[in-house]
Specification:
This protein is α/β, with parallel strands linked by helices. The protein has a single domain, classed as TIM Barrel (Alpha-Beta Barrel), CATH 3.20.20. Helix content is about 40%, strand content about 15%. It has 11 helices and 13 strands. α1 packs parallel to α11, α4 packs parallel to α5 and α5 packs across α6.
Length: about 350
């Protein structure tokens, strides 16, 4: 039997939806209606989960959106992005418990170690703050009182009355390439998320994080965040990819990337380096196209090909240890529907069961 993996889509809460990158379309701007349509399409297409991203300068509020859309869903999970430090951890725990109740126990949490709006913190203390938030929230949602005198948080508090459906903390999805980020992931994450890279680099990253987790007596699952451009034929897919960036001005793309609070991170720098390794058409290895990173920060590459090629690429990642995918494509509603029809039936997938 094929290995079951979790297949997730991306709801563009952060003003990241286009027909062509760098050319704004008011009908695709972040709004409750548009983003809810994406989530509902992901559920109808058979995806297991959907990432709700978070940004201060971009889009709509993630927690408010999750609370609004949750009662309209039947089975799909929500992967709610949380920027650490923006909420007092006990209150964050209460918010997450409420969302989990609204979803009937289907909440997952994407932990982001981001700078706060208007503040820049060095990497080491920023990740130390993130680690404290993760520990406090997990303890409270696991039903344990917290008495802490940490670097960033000093508090003594009992768990909130409202618990999650399971009585446990929802699984943490967490990414970061720096050494300190990898240590936080190994110590506190459930699913380590990575952005696109070459297959040898993915294999090396999985091996490194697996070793770090084992040294701490833990195990990790591994997730892969990547865009997709799938069409009936490879030629059509490559033309669609080229069309996506055909009107992108490089200065506009650079300005878009710079707007992200995470634009100077090690991970974003690695995506830029990946583009520099690519051929003249933007392909860094067969089926992996880096052109998409010219117009956005963060995840900067796409799997491009016909259904069989895209499916084969996903299976290669699965063989490398990936068991959770977070996909996206432009426009997100159309590509979600297309991927659901052309590729998803060929994958054995189900929501991850997290054993901590």
């Amino acid at each position: 039997m094929a290995q079951a993996v979790e297949m997730s889509w991306f709801a563009a809460l952060c003003d990241d939806d286009y027909v062509q990158l760098g050319v704004p379309d008011p009908s695709l701007a972040s709004s409750y209606r548009h983003c809810a349509d994406i989530v509902h399409q992901a559920e109808a297409s058979g995806f297991d989960n959907v990432l709700l991203p978070s940004g201060y300068d971009l889009g709509i509020d993630t927690t408010a959106f999750a609370a609004a859309v949750a009662p309209t869903l039947e089975r799909i999970r929500l992967l709610v992005a949380v920027r650490c430090g923006e909420s007092w951890p006990p209150q964050l725990a209460r918010q997450l418990a409420t969302l989990d109740q609204l979803l009937g126990g289907r909440l997952t949490v994407n932990i982001i170690s981001s700078d706060l709006p208007g503040q820049s913190l060095a990497s080491a203390p920023r990740y130390a703050r993130t680690s404290e938030v993760m520990e406090i929230v997990r303890d409270l949602l696991d039903g344990r009182p917290v008495a802490r005198d940490g670097e960033h948080y000093q508090l003594a508090v009992d768990p909130p009355r409202l618990a999650t459906v399971s009585g446990r903390c929802p699984p943490y999805y967490f990414g970061g390439l720096s050494d300190v980020a990898r240590d936080v992931a190994a110590s506190a994450a459930d699913v380590y998320l990575m952005w696109p890279d070459t297959e040898p680099a993915v294999a090396a990253l999985v091996a490194d994080l697996r070793s770090r987790a084992e040294a701490r007596g833990r195990t990790l699952r591994f997730g892969y965040r990547v865009h997709v451009v799938v069409r009936e034929t490879e030629a059509e897919a490559r033309r669609a990819a080229a069309h996506l960036v055909s009107r992108l001005d490089d200065q506009v793309g650079a300005a878009t990337r710079a707007r992200s609070l995470d634009s100077a991170s090690v991970g974003v720098s690695a995506q830029s380096a990946l583009r520099e390794q690519a051929d003249g058409d933007g392909y860094v290895e067969p089926g992996l196209w880096t052109g998409i990173g010219r117009g956005r920060s963060g995840c900067g590459a796409a799997i491009v090909g016909d259904p069989e090629q895209v499916l084969a690429k996903l299976h290669r990642y699965i063989e490398l240890g990936i068991d959770a995918f977070i996909l996206s494509g432009y426009p997100h509603l159309d590509e979600c529907r297309r991927f659901g029809e052309l590729v998803l039936p060929g994958l054995d997938h189900a929501p991850l069961s997290i054993d901590r």
